[in-house]
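2024-03-11 09:14:02 INFO worker-7 job=invfold-0412 stage=load source=structure_tokens
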């Protein structure tokens, strides 16, 4: 059947996480992703341990549904490969430092002369212009710079980063959205365009209500651990044997909640009569609830709260959620097979669509695995391909 982007070709010059996550999304939706790697490969191929069947787990996580061709872009003979690729492509995406693509001869101004309908997306830490343009952008440093890290962690303790590279991942998602929007614009006007996607810009949008809390008060938001700045109780509580997340987002739920946990006295307590008061007196409220939640196991509390319609969830380990019956039913853990490194577990695709669902067609590739295949599609003969290999243009 193929996904909704079947027939779309994307030239992927990216590596690490932000760019590859964007092309993972497009690939799951059916696009033909040609991953153009240096002869040494995407550096995440070497980010191990851990590894699965000899391949970096990090690399495997974001490089399915892609075909790999290894090209030495600094070799002058690579020009004829790039030109043929660009003529057949709809989208180009890169995440070099600003200015590097121009040095390699694969910048937007150069490639649109070959194909003026091309949609070209650059991902960088701080954007293609501005005072921070030339600063290196990594998930950790951009999270720190963006303000997100200042509100992540427990009160009175050092700031912490997110458990996954959230600035990379969200920037990749925004890049995919921008590319799809540009494709729609092209379908209407016939015109390609350039997309400048900044990790810092993306994280400022992710600040969402916390930024507006500052606009409203003129005060910096504080680290609250798992708590919510505007709702209480809305956080994780320790139980007899673990942790449970509880969200009480209305006065009706508050009334039900106090009865379910056997603390009707809290509903009558003048300190906690309204959400405003519960937020104001959060510290006292949390002390009371913590004592109560430690009297039962996580599973006991979850069963009681869930039956009463209170939003709650046990804090599961990765191993628990990846073996959860609902997750398995939704096919969010699957197995894929590669002829060289064998059968591996993988995450499924979240794109459940009635006519053109996302699908996993190709396992993460070996370095240069599809070089011959792609070159033949571009019209290179066997002798020309051999010559390109021997001269060190491709691998």
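2024-03-11 09:14:09 INFO worker-7 stage=emit residues=395
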């Amino acid at each position: 059947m193929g996904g909704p982007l079947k027939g779309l070709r994307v030239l992927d010059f990216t590596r690490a996480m932000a760019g590859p996550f964007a092309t993972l999304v497009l690939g799951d939706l059916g696009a033909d992703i040609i991953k153009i790697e240096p002869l040494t490969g995407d550096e995440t191929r070497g980010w191990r341990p851990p590894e699965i069947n000899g391949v970096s787990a990090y690399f495997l996580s974001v490089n399915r549904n892609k075909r790999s061709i290894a090209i030495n872009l600094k070799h002058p003979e690579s020009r004829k490969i790039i030109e043929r690729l660009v003529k057949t492509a709809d989208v180009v995406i890169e995440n070099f430092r600003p200015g590097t693509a121009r040095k390699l001869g694969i910048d937007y101004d150069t490639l649109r002369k070959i194909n003026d309908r091309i949609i070209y997306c650059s991902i960088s830490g701080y954007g293609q212009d501005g005072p921070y343009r030339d600063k290196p952008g990594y998930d950790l440093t951009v999270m720190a710079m963006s303000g997100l890290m200042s509100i992540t962690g427990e009160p009175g303790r050092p700031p912490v980063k997110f458990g996954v590279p959230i600035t990379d991942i969200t920037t990749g998602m925004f890049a995919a959205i921008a590319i799809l929007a540009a494709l729609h614009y092209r379908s209407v006007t016939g015109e390609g365009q350039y997309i400048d996607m900044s990790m810092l810009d993306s994280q400022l949008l992710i600040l969402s209500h916390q930024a507006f809390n500052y606009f409203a008060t003129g005060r910096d938001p504080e680290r609250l651990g798992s708590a919510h700045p505007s709702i209480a109780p809305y956080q994780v509580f320790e139980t007899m044997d673990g942790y449970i997340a509880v969200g009480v987002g209305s006065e009706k739920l508050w009334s039900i909640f106090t009865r379910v946990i056997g603390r009707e006295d809290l509903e009558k307590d003048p300190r906690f009569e309204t959400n405003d008061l519960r937020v104001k007196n959060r510290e006292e409220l949390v002390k009371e609830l913590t004592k109560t939640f430690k009297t039962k196991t996580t599973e006991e509390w979850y069963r009681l709260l869930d039956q009463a319609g209170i939003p709650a969830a046990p804090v599961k380990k990765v191993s628990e959620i990846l073996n959860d019956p609902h997750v398995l039913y939704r096919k969010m853990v699957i197995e894929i097979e590669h002829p060289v490194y064998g059968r591996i577990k993988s995450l499924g695709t979240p794109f459940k669509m009635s006519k053109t669902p996302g699908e996993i067609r190709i396992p993460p590739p070996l370095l240069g695995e599809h070089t011959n295949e792609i070159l033949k599609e571009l019209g290179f003969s066997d002798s020309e391909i051999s010559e390109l290999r021997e001269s060190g243009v491709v691998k």
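2024-03-11 09:14:09 INFO worker-7 stage=report msg="The radius of gyration is 25 Å."
2024-03-11 09:14:10 INFO worker-7 job finished
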